Amino acid sequence: MPNTTIPADWISVEASVLSIHLPQGLAKSGLLSDSSGIVLFAHQSDRVAVFPASESHPETDPLLIEAESIYPGDIQFTSPSLVYKVYETDPLAFSVSTDADDVRWLSFCLKHYPDLGWQTIESINRPDLDGTLRIKQNAAVFGWQSKDYPYSGKITFETKENQLDIESVRAICHSLRVENPSFQKNSDDSRSPMTDDTTSDTNTEITNR
Q1: Structural domain tally of the chain?
Q2: Domain region containing 2
Q3: Which of 39, 92, 109, 191 would be a feasible disulfide site paired with 15, CB 3.0-4.6 Å?
């Protein structure tokens, strides 16, 4: 995902264990929470829905463990990074010269390829967070996994206009932080707080084939 500057006039809001920055219109629109725990921000034609975080332990997830055992290389997956890796892999790359390990991985990708009609897939890989943004013309879904706390979740974006404001969507995704003092972080965190609005993530993007 391209680096994005969070506008200075955006407002920080909290939802569940998350904090995100939103444009003033969305942030001040009030938030609606139904019995499912979804927090909705709505302003004019735009809607942002923050789904409640769920407890998540990538190190014991059977699908991630299977993927790590099959992938032809040393890797540790989270759910977002696995989704991106599956999309990144060309399922039609099989040929008579493909070795056995690559065949197993291609077979895994074909089995789990999330063919949802998304036009573009982008990813965030930060020291504290993995995320995958799936984009189509007027909607997007950002799935995230914290690396500091045992939480994962998603944020959805919709607009009634013909085209989603993708730069704003990216800025909201980049602004996401996960905090919960009741949980001890997964590892000693000696990193300096991220205070610069311009992100310094490792970001990648592919277009759906």
Answers
A1: 1
A2: 1-209
A3: 39
